[in-house]
Design a protein that fits this description.
Four copies of one chain form a homotetramer. Chain A is mostly helical. The first copy, chain A, folds into two domains: 50 residues, Arc Repressor Mutant, subunit A (Orthogonal Bundle), CATH 1.10.10.60; 134 residues, Tetracycline Repressor, domain 2 (Orthogonal Bundle). In chain A, 72% of the residues lie in helices and 0% in strands. The first copy, chain A, has nine helices and no strands. In chain A, helix 4 runs antiparallel to helix 5 and helix 5 packs antiparallel against helix 9. The first copy, chain A, is elongated, with a radius of gyration of 19 Å. In chain A, 35% of the residues are buried. The model of chain A has no long low-confidence stretch (mean pLDDT 90). Chains in contact: A-B, C-D. The structure holds a DNA duplex.
DNA sequence: CATGAATGAGTCTTCATTCAT
DNA sequence: TATGAATGAAGACTCATTCAT
């Protein structure tokens, strides 16, 4: 099918661009580089994306949506709220391990400099926080979590595992799971004596 | 005095640049704009910074160091570990309220796209986490916080208040203090029922 | 063919640049002018030469090599050493008549301001002096020229025709050949009574 | 006296500029460098010369006039035409040995790219060729030189010693005098067998 | 007189985008 | 559909010159 070929090339470009943009600023990545990395001619890029700017936006969306899709799947598993939150964290670890360059586009450019994507990004963050918030809400309903502002708790929990699992701070491969467990435990038990 | 004049101009440029870079990408800010914003000739910028790139790096450092300096001061206040952590959070609120454009350069570009600054930035983050970690350690010594990995806790706590106080999510001015208290309380008591 | 097109464009640029640089200093010639003179876009120049500086160097080499190639051809003609030397001089006249702008880059910037080309230029001058020196050597062997340091003689002869045929001193078109003959005669007979 | 101090500074700047321009292109030498080399403030240069361009022109004139003044003096010595021509050549050697950087401005930028100086330079060259030509003319009158176009002979002779004594070709210090004698001998006796 | 910080006009160079092949 | 040579708009940066001290 024609569409399949087209979609394959789109993803090929996005993945190549993802790797290149990782750790570089927008203007440090040349369209020619992306083309080369995607093993295509420069002109071909423009068959799939109307501009470099749009390509970057698409990459941003592609990464974020991939993350949220996987997170949703991970959080959907049955179990206690603690198990489900842990699943969210495990999913995070797996994602940033497998798609480290994509991870980059999700929370770390979180105040996207792409003005055009601002509201889109807010919505996606909302979706993610809602996902976590719902798990917390259910935990409250189940009596596993004390009554609280689930929205705030979702943000706090998300922030804490993001910070604790920063691949620049720890060895994700080796210590990821352990830290995931610890940070989740901390969220449930608190630090107080 | 000569040195004073020079330092004043440096800061004048940095502050002007900070306001301009805020919410824009590196290449969207023209050196001429910075010069105009700093009320100087374009050439004068180059008397103080060898390149736009270097100016950006210096801005990054300037902002980060300002933040850490203020955080250190805030955390130094006497009191319980809870009060001191709260002081760190209050400082954060004040900083991103007063210097919202500078805040931008601190945790939100936290995987600095500026390759050259990577290790520098790691060090600064370490310094900040150590600052928080020491407060937690003292809390443990005092019996206010249960025995735990203070480093991990520091990262988790920092992550949670950063996420919860995101100015794009909440009205900092209005709800900042309340949320600061809540997120700190959550850190101490945990979410568990 | 592709390569042909590329070489054509290179030469087109070099010739255009040659005409422009003639009688102007490096910084008085704008890249845009060269592009316009070569009937190309400014960016195209940079497809062929990495910088204006390099383009100038290439022009220098191009001109010098063209001169030497033609001189070699002229000097290769059969005949007495006097005839062959005269051929070298005639070639010089023809060259600076037809390619006056290229001539400019050859002996008149003879202590090349282009530091990078210094040794390259020395080599080329050596080649030219050797060419003349060999003719003289053969003249000695044939008994047409008395035994002497052919290297020195080559330099002296070259210097004398260069100076005597300076287009700013004489009317090359009108008097060139006559003066060429005279200066060659002077070289053979000497000025002594 | 005031004027003495002023003249001293002028020469100081010219000499410093001469050393810097030597082997560099006009735009490669910065006014700041000249100032530093002359051990003055940048602004001070402008007290003595209205522009960098004019400074360069003055340097050019200064060098050329110094050369011609010395050549005239050298050629004025009593003796045979051969001795006097040799004196001109010896003077050349001494000049380019003592003032190598000034020599640079004389015959080697002989088609001055400074359009404004063109006619001035032609005149100076005329003066020099006349100087040599007069010696030749007197030689003819004395019967030391055969009847000939003294103008052409002057150019040829000048060209030959310039080329033969090129400091990039020979060791002036060591071989200068010998080559001077040889090139003069060649001029008188000719190369013919 | 001497200075050097401030200036901004002027230019090289880059690179996203086009389009003829 | 794929390509990459050609393009030129746009911007960082330089540096001669000025002028307040």
């Amino acid at each position: 099918m024609k569409n399949k070929r087209i979609e394959e090339n789109r993803v090929k470009i996005l993945e190549a661009a993802g790797r290149l943009f990782y750790g570089k600023r927008f203007h440090q990545v040349k369209v020619g580089e992306i083309a080369e990395a995607a093993d295509m001619g420069k002109g071909t890029i423009y068959e799939y994306f109307p501009s470099k700017e749009k390509l970057f936006e698409e990459l941003f969306k592609y990464s974020t949506e991939k993350y949220i899709r996987l997170a949703r799947k991970a959080g959907a598993k049955k179990g206690s709220s603690r198990e489900r939150l842990l699943a969210i964290v495990f999913n995070h670890i797996e994602f940033i391990t497998r798609f480290s360059h994509l991870d980059y586009y999700i929370f770390h450019i979180n105040r996207s400099n792409i003005q055009e994507l601002h509201s889109w990004f807010q919505e996606k963050r909302d979706q993610f926080l809602s996902l976590v918030g719902e798990i917390i809400d259910e935990g409250i309903r189940r009596g596993e979590i004390r009554a609280m502002d689930s929205r705030l708790a979702a943000a706090a929990f998300t922030g804490s595992f993001l910070a604790a699992l920063d691949p620049f701070l720890i060895d994700l491969e080796k210590d990821g799971k352990k830290i995931a467990a610890e940070v989740t435990a901390l969220f449930f038990q608190g630090a107080g004596a």
